Amino acid sequence: EFSYRGRSLADLKGMSLEELATVLPARARRSIRRGFNTETLRFLDRMRSTPVEKVIRTHCRDALILPEHVGRRVAVHTGKEFKEIEVRPEMIGHYLGEFSITRRFEKHSGPGVGATRSSKFMPLK
């Protein structure tokens, strides 16, 4: 059974935004207190209006994950492509961008031909 700081998921879903802010960490609490920007508000409206089984694509990486989002699928833009995430209860209070990494590790291969003195004698592919 999931609980977030001693409260069940059903309790969290029943709370208003102001009540929820008292339970969330400081950064999320401050974000709620200052009010959401228009991009985040549009994202929240789309979340509420679309059916649960439909994937919602968004560029809004700074949207706060609320209890009402649990169980939804969201495709968050990485700067190059959309990465689909399934919102789980453990993600409440985090931001969408935290689960859609913008950088990827690029493994370097061997040196190119002529890059060093020793690579001069390496056979070409």
From TrEMBL:
Keyword Ion transport among UniProt keywords: no
Gene3D superfamilies tied to this protein: 30s Ribosomal Protein S19, Chain A
GO MF term list: RNA binding; structural constituent of ribosome
UniProt key word Transport: no
GO CC annotation, single: cytosolic small ribosomal subunit
Single GO biological process annotation from the record: translation
Matching Pfam families: Ribosomal_S19
Keywords attached to this entry: Ribonucleoprotein, Ribosomal protein
Coiled coil segments of this chain: none
SUPFAM superfamilies per record: Ribosomal protein S19 (SSF54570)
Family (UniProt): Belongs to the universal ribosomal protein uS19 family.
Protein name as catalogued: Ribosomal protein S15, eukaryotic/archaeal
Species of the source: mine drainage metagenome
